[in-house]
Amino acid sequence: MKVLIVEDDFVSRKLLQSLLGHYGECDIAVNGNEAVAAFSLSMESDSPYDLICMDIMMPGMDGQQALREIRAMEKGAGIAEVDQVKVIMTTALDDPRNVVESLYRGGAVSYIVKPIDKAKLLGEIRQMGLLN
User: Fold this and answer.
1) Which of 1, 5, 74, 110 could form a disulfide with 24 if both were Cys (CB 3.0 to 4.6 A apart)?
2) What is this structure's pTM?
3) Looking at residue 99, what is its pLDDT?
4) How far apart (Å, rounded) are the C-alpha atoms in residues 86 and 2?
5) pLDDT tens string 43-76
6) Domain encompassing residue 112
7) Between the CA atoms of 10, 12, 17 and 19, what dihedral angle is there, to the nearest 10 degrees?
8) Burial of 44 (0-12, 13-18, 19+ CB in 10 A)
9) Number of Cβ within a 10 Å radius of residue 58
């Protein structure tokens, strides 16, 4: 499994890397701009991500905007919705507006409130079919 962790908080980033590093290769981006650039590079090199764990609230380009740009790149490349990268949005806010924006409008597959619970995260990834 190839994972992109997009998180501006060092501790959260290290936690996700520690949890997911056992299951595959993890790349890191610290904001939405880096996430979009990393995703674009992965598409160009024909080595796409299987999973993106992305914080919603980040300085500069936030997770919502980065997700919209990633989905636009996939659409432009003719990638069917079923084959798109699986995206889990993470946030410190348990806010219904963010849930609607991420899941229904943005195309995220899941939404997890911080602090991230290992069992919940791995359960979500299993449901996506990325882990046995």
Assistant:
1) 1
2) 0.93
3) 65
4) 11
5) 999 999 999 999 998 999 999 999 999 999 999 9
6) 2-127
7) 150
8) exposed
9) 23
Q: Is residue 79 a contact partner of residue 70, using CB atoms and an 8 Å limit?
A: no
Q: Is 23's pLDDT higher than 90?
A: yes
> Is 51 contained in some domain?
yes
Which 3 state secondary structure label does DSSP give 129?
coil
CATH code of residue 115: 3.40.50.2300
Residue 132 in any domain: the answer is no
Residue reference for tokens 């432009």: 76
Is 86 a domain residue?
yes
**Strand 86-91, strand 51-55: pairing:** parallel
What is d(CA 20, CA 1) in angstroms, rounded to the nearest whole number?
Answer: 9
Decide if 13 contacts 29 (C-beta within 8 A): no
Look at the block and give the residue holding tokens 């674009």: 40
- CA–CA gap between residue 38 and residue 28 (Å, rounded): 9
Q: Which H or E run includes 112? A: strand 110-113
How many domains does one find in the chain?
1
| Cα–Cα distances in angstroms (integers) from residue 112 to residues 12, 54, 66, 77, in the given order | 13, 10, 17, 28
